Amino acid sequence: MDPITLSTVAVVALVVVLAVPALVVWRKGRPAVAGEVFRASRLSGGNRLFPTQVIVTPQSVVHYTPQWIGRHEHSIHIAHVSSVRIDTGLMFSDVVIETTGGAGAIHCRGHRKGDAIRIKQLIEQFQSAYYRAGAGAGQAPLPAALPVT
What angle do CA 13, 15, 16 make, to 5 degrees? Predict the structure, then answer.
């Protein structure tokens, strides 16, 4: 092989070796589902490669953390959320969602302040709709549409 072909092969191999992990990090950092997904900032601790995501639906709150292989998900039914606490720092906010059943709380670190407030508002809105529909008495809850932002 001549030197030009060898160097071209080396450059292409280097680009492939660097591009594949970058593609994996980019794909796993995208929102997990369509709709209102709150992603933590990559600038906050523990969220550099794969930022954690919080998905609030009318039925549940899901804490979703992508990993190199697989993912970690923690889900709480909206009726089992007992409190939502927001700890605001200089740049980012931490959201702690406590449960009624003794299961572990969801700790979400590194969200923007506006996102943290919106997470709390959505949970309170969906809980109100759930109990207003009589779901606490054993009836099926009415579906609530996610607001468009």
Answer: 65
